Amino acid sequence: MVVSQKKYRYVANWKMSYNLNETLDYAARHYDAYEKLADTPSTTIVICPTTIALYPLGKIFGQSNIKLGAQDCSDHARGSFTGQTSAESIRATGASYCIIGHSERRRLCGETSAMIASKLEQLIDVHINPIICIGETLEENKAGKTLSALEEQLNPLLQIMNKKQALLSYTSVSIAYEPVWAIGSGLVPTHEHLETVYAWLLQKITKSGIQVQIQFLYGGSVTSKNIEQLKKMAFFDGFLVGGASLDFQEFEKIVQY
Ligand code: PGA
């Protein structure tokens, strides 16, 4: 495993918070400011809007430093999968990243770890940078089952990376640890908890022998109020930001801190 240098990656997960027109309007209004924010080699900003906005946003941000990402993709390449969007089509919009395995999709859409592993395979095949979310529920956390829950989610993903080793050099993989209980709750795990999780993750990936450039991210209630404390922790080099990414000034503070 190759651990990348300290280069922060900020993923703005806009979820379904803005409709299409609001998304385009918001992006156009803040275009210059986003450009400025991303204009440093140590910072990558990835905006993940609602899927239908990817194509027009690709036109707006196409020549800029801002990267675009989808919030999900199909676990199939093509075929009779009504309502789904293939990794290939996401690529064609100009997006170069894609979130997979977000807990809202696991919980609300019944996505299993095996399905998420198939999505990873689709992304690797078309050279889209995967942003893989993993995280334990509150019940798992309280029962002391955090690492076993993460292991169940991670193992099928490692198997795919192993199988696709030859293609992995075309992508930069992010693993975002997002405890389900920290998302949108205002709660952030303790330093000790995060240290344990990321040390375990690092060991697990190193042991797998997979040669891959992995960037660890943290997600769950990241705001301008806790970013100082989070950036002091050396275990990860990026953030997946939900609610706080919907307010440009707030997002700017997180990036610039
Ligand atoms: P949050 O969401 O920052 O609003 O907690 C993070 C996420 O769901 O990815």
Counting helices, strands and paired strands, the structural category is: alpha/beta
Q: What topology, given as strand order, has the largest sheet?
A: 2-3-4-5-6-7-8-9
In terms of DSSP E residues, the strand content is: 15-25%
Distance between the termini: 29 Å
What's the alpha carbon Rg, rounded to whole Å? 17 Å
The ligands found in this model are: 2-phosphoglycolic acid
Shape: globular
- Helix share of residues? 40-55%
Q: Give helix and strand order, one letter per element, not per position.
A: EEHHEHEHEHHEHHEHEHEH
List the keywords:
257 residues, alpha/beta, eight-stranded parallel barrel, globular, disordered N terminus, binds 2-phosphoglycolic acid
Which helices and strands appear, and what pairs or packs with what?
Blueprint (H helix, E strand, L loop, with lengths): L1 E2 L4 E6 L6 H10 L1 H7 L5 E6 L5 H8 L5 E4 L16 H6 L4 E4 L2 H6 L4 H13 L3 E6 L3 H5 L3 H18 L9 E5 L13 H18 L4 E7 L7 H5 L6 E4 L6 H9 L1
Parallel strand pairs: 1-8, 2-3, 2-9, 3-4, 4-5, 5-6, 6-7, 7-8, 8-9
2-phosphoglycolic acid binds next to strand 9.
Give a brief outline of the structure.
The protein has 257 residues and is of the alpha/beta class. It has eleven helices and nine strands. The longest helix has 18 residues, at 146-163.
Question: Care to describe what's here?
Answer:
Helices cover 41% and strands 17% of the residues. It contains 11 helices and 9 strands. β3, α3 and β4 (67-70) form a beta-alpha-beta unit. Mean pLDDT is 95; it is low at 1-5. Bound molecules: 2-phosphoglycolic acid. The site of 2-phosphoglycolic acid has 13 residues, from β9.
